[in-house]
Amino acid sequence: GSPRWNMATADAVLSFPKAAVTFSCALGTEISEQATPRLYVLLRRTLLDAGLSTYGAKNRYRRERPFVSNGAPICTPAEDAILRKDGSYPSGHSAAGWAWGLVLAQAAPERADALIARGRAFGQSRVACNVHWLSDAEEGRIVGTATVARLQNNAEFQADLAAARTEIAAARAAGKRPTGDCAAEAAALANF
Question: Is the pLDDT of residue 192 over 70?
Fold first, then answer.
């Protein structure tokens, strides 16, 4: 029930459109299929690239998740059975969140500090949720970094990134505000 627990619970959702809102406060503008369609698609593609890039290691190591070992609650109890069967190392959520932070920092470098901090917090949410060990989240960031580095030479990624920059500027010029609860997010991050 703490602000950080609530944030971690919200961060567990990787489906769109909910996931798109996650970085809107850090970006300082709305992220949606309507307001920023190319950015929206870029984030969805990055999720697939970064999140799925962890499965080779997950399937190889099959590391047991913390809640299985310690019996403490998780912030997404409906996912208990699925998570018990899915390896903990490395964190796909952490890889995706970190990759989103890096990509958004490229799209809006003036907000890079806030975006990178939010990307880190997104991965740490999995530790707060008791579904990943700290080393899982840290390794997820490394996988996310490698994924984004690899995307730098992809022409389609670069075109999406350029379009996202234009959309972000247009959304700001139009006065589009973040759609997330920025006060709650700031409160959660204040004790992080």
Answer: no
Active site residue 177: no
Closest CA to 65 of 78, 84, 81, 51: 84
126 is known as an active-site residue: yes
Q: Which of 118, 136, 141, 160 is catalytic?
A: 136
**93, 111, 120, 141: the active-site residue:** 93
User: What are the tokens at 109?
Assistant: 């470098």
Asked whether residue 39 carries a pLDDT value surpassing 80, the answer given is: yes
| Residues belonging to the chain | 192
Active-site annotation holds for 63: no
User: Which residue among the candidates 4, 132, 141, 160 is catalytic per the annotation?
Assistant: 132
pLDDT of residue 43: 97
pTM of this structure: 0.94
Q: Is the peptide bond before 73 cis (omega within 30 degrees of 0)?
A: no
Q: From its phi and psi, is residue 141 left (phi > 0), alpha (psi between -120 and 50) or beta?
A: alpha
